[in-house]
Design a protein that fits this description.
alpha/beta
Length: about 140
């Protein structure tokens, strides 16, 4: 786990950098898991590598809460899915192969912005991707 084992917030927990180094030097397989997400595995690996001072940490060692969804992009190709989360959730979905630009993978914010009957007072916020009218 990352939160509470390796890091506390953005602070490295004492001894965790050394423990990761020792695992690598001993040839022990290891991965970082977290129920957090909202960024790609590559971004999370870069953040963790910088905090731990270990440039050898890469995305192949990351398992985020949404990582299992990566394999669903092909299964749900050209089918509407709603992606929910924080930070860069839509960008993560797009990186996994979901069609965000084409309107097949949408966020609740896109639906609110593009479907007046759902949110009649008008959403009025920039959502970063095209608004989607789910009734169209």
């Amino acid at each position: 786990d990352i939160d509470g084992v390796v890091l506390r917030g953005k602070e490295v927990i004492k001894g965790s950098s050394e423990a990761v180094r020792m695992l690598r030097e001993a040839g022990v397989p290891y991965a970082f898991m977290t129920n957090g997400g909202g960024v790609t595995e590559a971004v999370k690996a870069q953040e963790l590598a910088k905090l731990l001072g270990d440039p050898l940490i890469d995305e192949s060692r990351m398992l985020l809460s949404h990582t299992p969804m990566r394999d669903l992009a092909q299964r749900f190709h050209r089918r509407r899915v709603v992606v929910v989360g924080s930070r860069d959730t839509a960008k993560v979905a797009q990186a996994y192969g979901f069609d965000v630009q084409g309107g097949w993978a949408v966020t609740p914010q896109q639906i609110a912005a593009g479907t007046p009957s759902i949110y009649p007072q008008g959403y009025g916020k920039e959502v970063g991707f095209p608004p989607v009218d789910v009734n169209a």
